[in-house]
Amino acid sequence: MAMRWFLLLASSFRRVHSASCYSPADFSTESWPFCQVLTDSLSMYFGPAGDGDYMKLGLHAENHVGWSALAIGGNGGMKGAQQVVVRQVDGAWVAEERYSADYVEPHLQETQEVLLIFANESAGSTSWGVLLPTRSCKAGDRYAMEDVGMFMHWALGYSHAFSYHKERGQFHTNLVSGPPAPPPDMSSFPSVTFTMPDVPVVLGEGGSDAMNPYICGIFDLAEALPAGLLTTSKHHAAKFAPVLSSASKEFVHHMILFECADQVAVDNNFTHNHVIPNCERMVRGCQTSKWPWAVGGEDLVLPDNVGVPIGNGARWYALQVHYYNPSLVPNVSDSSGVHVALAPSLRTHDAETFGVVGGASPMQRDPLPPGQAEVSIPSAVVPTQCTNQWNADEITVLGVMHHAHLVGKKLAIHVSRNGEYIGEMRREKVYDFNHQSLEGSSIKTLKKGDELTLTCSYDTSSRTEPTAFGDFTQDEMCLAYFLHYPAQNARRSIFLRALGENRISLCSDPSQSADSFQLVQNPTQLLASAVQSTAPVLTPPACEPRGDLTSSSARDVLASMGVDVSGFSMDTSSSASGWIRAVAFVAVSLASWGVL
């Protein structure tokens, strides 16, 4: 079964910070609007400035001496991350803007768009602050500072010589609106848990690939629900938390919880904790995905007015687990699964996912040629004929997930409205198979009649043979999903063919069989239901910069922080050594500039 969707914690709540977060003397609430505690010894300070044209970014590292960095990323890994590294070079503090396209040493950006406000080491701890433009159009790879939740990273070095980090971490924040609040306490909520019953991770009879077993666990909700809760009643899942077995989690590629029709249990003699040793193709009638997880995924916490429907007459659930065991390690057993917290009362909105199936089968896509650093395939289009089937004029997007396999390089969903290009939903410069998650959408509202275009590219330079599209990890995919509310009857659009600029797609029709996803294996059967459209022309508007670090407005931002700008260099040009040496003062803090 093709991978449907993966989610990572994405909270829209904002935190009210205590004064203790601002205990370092270099940071004040007046100059640094937001503070986010990253670890017991690490805090980030940030906030927009200059009418939103600039972003202030600062770090305090307790008991640390050496280089330190903050990064903006499209996912939880290094691929596609824009870093700000602060360190000493020849006794002077420098701020460097770097970028990493892979798991290698991040390279210096071609141009430098970072201004070091201050940096110091005091009593064995490090503090620094920088100023960034909200949007730069200069050469380099950068993310615009938008009002959307996003991944960031931190890293600490062994010394001021820039080399491999000694510590790193990842976290979510919103640089414009502030950090997310801690997840609400749901320990008192009723809950259900679906876990594999210590299954041997081996290929079942009829399976295709010993390295890629697909195994399903079947669960009776009537057995799993707490006493007093009925399967005939509607419940709202407020949180999904993966349960991973420490001894086998390295082999778990993805998990999907499906809701099944009751007749399926009768036809297949299902019982609670029943195991299907081979379910590469999901059991017919178990097609409604409720929760997914994949490598890099964390908890999914829904906003407090939104829930994923559970029960409501549905009694049987199937957990499909795709294991990836490339070395065929023997004697592996697994008890992974999901813990579901149920809201004490029904919420206002049902949440659902919409999937853009741009390539999951060799019937949809030709194999990718080997040995090429950039292979793009024809776009998959969700035409207006499909989105006009939505039963709401507008839907709110909670997050977007991209999915490809090992050679996936770049995926994006583009939105067009009335023939006009609106933008890209999720910003992820480089796809990372090991860090798949649902992330915030720059476009928060979609409208009935919008056109969605999924683009996918690949790097096959490591392959010596063509790469087919299919379910297995060594195959490839081109998929994207977005979580939204209110729930719609139409749940997916399936790409069938590209004929020049024309696209043939299948709109998900509620009257169609629930197994329509599987029918993509033979799309000729679907042509009678397919629609034809022309691929929209994707012409993003010209980049409009926001914030000039050499301008008087940047000086005004610094002056408002108490910085004496009379002798402050605003030069952000690279030196001969390639370092940006914006003026910095060793062991000088904002306190000495009269900020506090």
From TrEMBL:
What SUPFAM superfamilies has UniProt attached to this entry?
CBD9-like, PHM/PNGase F
What keywords tag this UniProt record? Copper, Disulfide bond, Glycoprotein, Metal-binding, Monooxygenase, Oxidoreductase
What domain of life is recorded for the organism? Eukaryota
Q: Does the keyword Phosphoprotein apply?
A: no
Task: Keyword check for Transmembrane, yes or no.
Answer: no
Q: Which Gene3D superfamilies match?
A: 2.60.120.230, Cellobiose dehydrogenase, cytochrome domain (2.60.40.1210), Copper type II, ascorbate-dependent monooxygenase, N-terminal domain (2.60.120.310)
Q: Which Pfam families match?
A: Cu2_monoox_C, Cu2_monooxygen
Record-linked PROSITE patterns:
CU2_MONOOXYGENASE_1
Molecular function (GO) terms for this protein are: copper ion binding; dopamine beta-monooxygenase activity
Q: Which residues form a coiled coil?
A: none
What InterPro entries does the entry give? Cu2_ascorb_mOase-like_C, Cu2_ascorb_mOase_CS-1, Cu2_ascorb_mOase_N, Cu2_ascorb_mOase_N_sf, Cu2_monoox_C, DBH-like, DOH_DOMON, PHM/PNGase_F_dom_sf
Output the PANTHER family linked to this UniProt entry.
DOPAMINE BETA HYDROXYLASE RELATED, MOXD1 HOMOLOG 1
What protein name does the entry list? DBH-like monooxygenase protein 2-like
